[in-house]
Write a structure and sequence with these properties.
The chain is α+β, with helices and mostly antiparallel strands. It has two helices and six strands, in the order ββαβββαβ. It has helices spanning about 25-35, 85-105, and strands at about 5-10, 20-25, 40-45, 60-65, 70-80, 110-120. A hairpin with a 2-residue loop joins strand 4 (about 60-65) and strand 5 (about 70-80). Helix 1 (about 25-35) packs across helix 2 (about 85-105). It starts with 5 loop residues before the first strand and ends with a strand.
């Protein structure tokens, strides 16, 4: 993850008692868990290298940023050979958006799935 910033929660989560902030690392951790369980994803990848990252370093393949509409997520994955890449990416995008919104209350404005490589599952 490139930045260690926090993302301020949506106004609906604010109250007269204060505001809620969620660290980008927390969002990246949610994305990492969802991606690890996703059908067709062999693993997370180092950006642009197509190299699998070990589980404890998988969050390096995830970028979290904030724009006017919500949270933007970029993730870099390796997909199992022989599967429909567009279908795997679409399913992953939908699951990540659903879980991030459900668990954090933040609106997800965009998810970019970068397929860095295809491999046979081990």
């Amino acid at each position: 993850m490139r930045s260690k910033q926090s993302v301020e929660a949506a106004p609906a989560l604010s109250s007269p008692l204060g505001r809620i902030t969620i660290a980008s690392e927390v969002i990246a951790q949610i994305v990492s868990h969802v991606t690890a369980e996703a059908y067709g994803v062999v693993g997370m990848s180092a950006r642009g290298l197509g190299r699998l990252l070990p589980g404890d370093r998988s969050r390096r393949a995830i970028d979290i940023s904030r724009d006017d509409d919500g949270v933007r997520i970029d993730l870099h994955v390796v997909v199992e050979y022989g599967l429909n890449l567009a279908e795997v990416a679409s399913t992953l995008r939908n699951r990540v958006a659903y879980e991030v919104e459900r668990l954090t209350g933040l609106r997800v404005s965009a998810i970019e799935v970068h397929i860095e490589d295809v491999r046979t599952s081990a």
